[in-house]
Amino acid sequence: LNLLLTTAGFAFAVAGLGTVIGFFGACTLRFTPSDRLRSLSLFILPSAAIPPHIHAMAWAALLGWLNRFLRQSGLSALSEQGFGISVWVQTMSLLPFALGILFLTLNGLPGEQLEASRVVSPDKRTLLRVLLPLVTPGLSASFSFLFLVSLLDYSVPSLFQLNLYALGIFSEYSVRYDAAQAILMTLPLLFVSLPVCWLLQRSLRRLPLTPPVEGREIR
Hints:
By secondary structure, this protein is mainly α.
């Protein structure tokens, strides 16, 4: 039970952090007036092909260098293993998917509503009252996808010495070679993932994927 709760907390943290970063990153790419910055959206899909273990190696090297600098400065070093670094690396490895989903969502929004709101209200009110309700399907889809992947994948956490439920299933089967026992152990993950799968399917159907009308693009 503790392992399952840790796994659910890990997946929730990755999904929440990745969706928040992805939303603000997608807003920057979508609404910035700089064409050079907007062209970065072309690299979202190719960057998703970078394997997770490459992210883990890169962030581990960066964290090691940072800790050496902190020790030389007489400061406490950051933890190189455990929950926190695992959440961060997993989030960074899945961030292209969150960015892609939310960028497509923002591209399909009806520009007239946002333009009308920005005329009579400040941008902050437009963000809270108009933009967020319109992109709710994209936020739900991003959160659900990142949650499911993090719930079922143990590759990155295992590199940072964080044990998750999926790794426990693999270890148990490797020791006993009992398929029935392994299937029984997957039932808790199945019960957790089924509602999230339903939410992901529902959110994908509600995504506003109609491209904006030419000449009405918001900046």
